[in-house]
What does this fold into?
Amino acid sequence: AQSVTQLGSHVSVSEGALVLLRCNYSSSVPPYLFWYVQYPNQGLQLLLKYTTGATLVKGINGFEAEFKKSETSFHLTKPSAHMSDAAEYFCAVTAGSARQLTFGSGTQLTVLP
Amino acid sequence: EAGVVQSPRYKIIEKKQPVAFWCNPISGHNTLYWYLQNLGQGPELLIRYENEEAVDDSQLPKDRFSAERLKGVDSTLKIQPAELGDSAVYLCASSPRVAGGPSNEQFFGPGTRLTVL
It folds into this structure.
């Protein structure tokens, strides 16, 4: 079985400040980890994913995430927030031969001017 | 390349009425998914197709929900009869068949927002 916990359903940052969205996962086998972004009334768009290899993963729009096995975490960061980053962010996991993505409950990011 | 297309985008019906959602995946994508997204929650898988075969429908409430993917391309998700608790966004996603397997990206459509009155 696999699961995802996203700490903080709402995060607010000032424009230009660091963005940190937290994600912890549970998996009995090595996981594949994903971050998706969802803008209002739109579908989900992949930001980045970790499969194997380098644990620091860079994605689109300046986002990156680091896979830390010892902490079972995959936190999403961006050095400087932009107003256009305001959206809902979902962490997801899949593992083993399963092709089922298990999503966290999401974090709504607000960027303050 | 065109993305995943879903229609309608919005649907309002009265309880006990039937409703159907349509999805056209990205061309060449063998795997198609239907997800349910409740307000303030992440998507939850309802059913997964590999070509025309439903390979994972364990989360589909089969007493009122049904789905089909004729010819392995377009798919339809139906609810009959709809209940108040079915109000949600229904997302369709697709992914290609490549060697990555579970690491493959899923491409999502914009969803259908269903309101049951």
Notes: The mean pLDDT of chain B is 91. Chain B is about 0% helix and 45% strand. Chain B touches chain A through 28 residues (CB under 8 Å).
